[in-house]
C-alpha cells in the first residue's frame, strides 16, 4: 500500500509541529528534511533521510521509499508552500500524492508583531537569489514588502542595495529568531542598518513612509521629465510605441538612444518586474535618466552609458527593444540589436529621418521579418493671443517587427 507524502510545517523558531501532525510524525517510517529541522526530533527511531540536492534527485529518493510502502514525512519550516520545499516538490511528486500540514509562516508571525496584515504585504524571497528586480518592482508600485533573506542577502546588504538605487521612502524592520526566547525586532531607516549584524534566522519587512498619492502608470506629460531642448519622445508617440511593445512581466527591455529615459520610465510601470536598460552615449542625458529614475521612483530602470553597438555586449539578451534616437547613420546598431533580440521578441523603431526609415525597412526585409508601420502626426493645443492654436509635432514613423521563433 502506498501512503501519501506528508509535508509538515514546523512553527518558525520553536520548531514545534502542529497538533494535527504529532501522530503522523511519530508513526512515520522515514523522517526527512534539512539538518536543523531533523535535529529537533532526536528521539525519532526510524530512517532519517537528510535533504539532498538537486531537488529532482531528492524527489526520487522520497518516491523510492513511498513505492516501498513506507510512511514518509518531510519536515519544513512554517508554511511549506511559502517559498518552501512544498511549493517545489508538488510538481515533481504530484499534488494528489502529497498532504501538507502547515504552521504559520515567518511572514505571518512577523506581520502580526508589527500590527500588519500579511495580505497587505508583497512577499518576496532573496534566499539563494541574486535578482533584485522583483523587489525593485514592488517598491516602485509602492507596496510594503516582506523579504526572506540569507547570509549573502542579509538586512545590511538589502539596505545598501536600496540606498544605492536611491530608495528614500521606506523604513526597515528586521525580525530575528521569531518564535524563540531570543526573538528581537529592530526598526529604523535604511541608513541606520549600515554595519548592522543579526542572527542568520531573520526576515525583513519594508514599509512605505508618507503618502505619494495614487500611483500613475502611464501618460506622463513631457514637462514632468527632466529633459533638454525638447529632446524627448512626445506623449502621443510614446504611448503608441509602448502599446506596440507588448510589454509583459519578467522581460528584459532595451531602450536604445534613450535620451532622458521617458520610454523606459513609462514602460517600467507597465511591465511588472521587467528590467529596463536605458542606453545612451551622452553623459548629460545619462544624468537626466538618473534624475528621472529618482523623480518617478522607477527603480527597475538601469542607465547604461556608452556607444552602440559596443556597449550592448555587456547587456543580457532582450525580449523587447525600443529604438528611438539610437538608429544612427548606418545599420550597425539595428543589425546588432536584431541579432541579440530573443526569438519571438519584438522590436519597435521610432524614426523621423527618411534614412532611418529606409535602413530599418531594409534590415527587416533582409532578415525576412514581417514588419508593419504607422506614421503619426499629432498636434497639441497652446495659448496664442487670447485664443488657442494647435502646434504640430514632427511626424514620427513607427515600425515594428517580431523576430521569428526559430531564428
Indicate the structural class: alpha/beta
Calculate the mean pLDDT score and round it. 93
Multimeric state of these chains? Answer: single chain
Report the uncertain regions. Answer: none
Report the biggest beta sheet as strand number plus sense, adding barrel if it closes: 7 strands, mixed
Shape: elongated
**Count of alpha and pi helical runs:** 12
Q: What is the distance, rounded to the nearest whole angstrom, between the alpha carbons of the first and last residues?
A: 51 Å
Round the Cα radius of gyration to an integer and report it: 27 Å
Percentage of β-strand residues: 25-35%
Proportion of helical residues: 25-40%
Tally of DSSP β-strands: 19
Strand order in space, largest sheet:
13-12-11-14-15-19-16
